[in-house]
Amino acid sequence: MKLILPAALRGRIEAEARASFPRECCGLIEGIRAGDDARAFTIHPARNIAQRDDRFEIAPENHFTALKAARKNGRDLIGCYHSHPGGNAEPSAHDLQGAGEEDFLWLIARLSDRLEPVALAAFVYCAASFFPVELTDEEGADLVTSSGKARR
Q1: Phi-psi region of 136 (alpha: psi -120 to 50; beta: other; left: phi over 0)
Q2: Which of 15, 41, 58, 121 is geometrically suited to a Cys-Cys bond with 46, CB 3.0 to 4.6 A?
Q3: First to last CA, the chain
Q4: Could you list the residue range(s) of the whole structural domain that residue 105 is in?
Q5: Torsion angle defined by CA atoms of residues 64, 101, 9 and 116, in that order, rounded to the nearest 10 degrees
Q6: How far is CA 78 from the centre of its chain?
Q7: Do the Cβ atoms of 66 and 122 come closer than 8 Å?
Q8: Cα 121 to the center of its chain, rounded Å
Q9: How many whole angstroms separate alpha carbon 4 and alpha carbon 36?
Q10: Digit-coded pLDDT (tens) for 22-72
């Protein structure tokens, strides 16, 4: 599976992760799926209502607003994103406990502080597990795997 995430959207997620540090940022991804490929068209930043800094919970009103916008645009909510301040760019045990929608994409932004580069990795939730997804900014561009290594 491949997720096409335009550079502008990636930049917005990275900026949001930095601005929210040391709390997790979160939001939803609006896009389309075609076979094994998915394309993000916009993101919907959400208020994180989790009590702990190292957790995320999307505010229900933000979820409904994003869902209405996606439907109006003829698209779907294909995934979510959140940051792991000081953590890894991979799903945590808590992420696995909170996941439930089959074939839903998860983008995780890892950063150790506001000034460090942000590592972004993509996964799909399927059969009660997460699996890495190739991440690219445009069709035909270099792909970045969940390990963060570029390949051609």
Answers
A1: beta
A2: 58
A3: 16
A4: 2-151
A5: 110
A6: 10
A7: no
A8: 8
A9: 11
A10: 999 999 999 999 999 999 999 999 999 999 999 999 999 999 999 999 999
